[in-house]
Give the backbone structure.
Amino acid sequence: DTGVSQDPRHKITKRGQNVTFRCDPISEHNRLYWYRQTLGQGPEFLTYFQNEAQLEKSRLLSDRFSAERPKGSFSTLEIQRTEQGDSAMYLCASSGGGSTGFPGNTIYFGEGSWLTVV
Amino acid sequence: QKEVEQNSGPLSVPEGAIASLNCTYSDRGSQSFFWYRQYSGKSPELIMFIYSNGDKEDGRFTAQLNKASQYVSLLIRDSQPSDSATYLCAVRDTGNQFYFGTGTSLTVIP
């Protein structure tokens, strides 16, 4: 079990450019989450997959954001036409599912991908 | 919008004391409750979870849940300087969605 892996760990981009982040969840986990976190705030939900199906997407997520999980394994989060307000840490987390109380319900985070838009 | 409220702190305790962190949530349908620790510049790491009313102990940590009051807390006994971090409360709903508070900053003074 290698944990949740995110790439790249740091990205500096110019405003208007597109960026893509990749997340590899824990291998047996079928649920994958993307969150965004800014300084002094808790993680803010962006979107959630169960296997390859995107089950929920935050209303706060503009059309510039898109996420995929094509084969139910790794996922990508793309931000088009980046803005300075997109600067944040983008967190991926995964969960093994199961019923309430099952340890697999817990979500485990990757190390995060830091985005700075200049 | 499902709310998870935490006192942002900062909370300061002397080394060896008990630190008490509190959290309230708005959704009565919430299923499970989690505490994460986050060091500056790092991602959250799970400390423990609880889903039944009462206390759950794991080493120096005790989580307490009161669903009637929609309240969950974390006690850290024998606090150490290495416990200095931000503690995030998270709640899982019936749709497997997780909601986080803004975190409480804890400083343990040697």
